[in-house]
Specification:
about 90 residues; mainly alpha
């Protein structure tokens, strides 16, 4: 079985924490393995509920009422034509 080496960049605070753990005799490699397994176990336990996630996002970022739309209804040919003409007039 081939093993892979993972390099992790640490900021100075993280370096100090690693040194403290090593001084206590804690294997950083084993700590990483346990952390990886724990995260995978958490993410695989339950599937993402897309409906709940969308509801949460809508509640967090509600649509502001009475805001004019930047783009026209693409099924309305007249509105699209006016939108394009207005955009072209601005660029000239």
């Amino acid at each position: 079985m081939a093993s892979r080496l993972i390099n992790v960049r640490l900021n100075p605070e993280d370096e100090r924490l690693v040194e403290r753990l090593r001084a206590r005799g804690i294997s950083i490699s084993e700590l990483m393995r346990r952390a990886l397994r724990s995260e995978v176990a958490k993410t695989n336990d339950e599937p993402i509920d897309a409906t709940a996630l969308i509801d949460e996002l809508i509640a967090k970022f509600p649509t502001v009422p009475n805001v004019p739309h930047a783009r026209p209804d693409t099924t309305d040919r007249c509105a699209v034509r006016e939108h394009i003409a207005k955009r072209l007039r601005r660029r000239r």
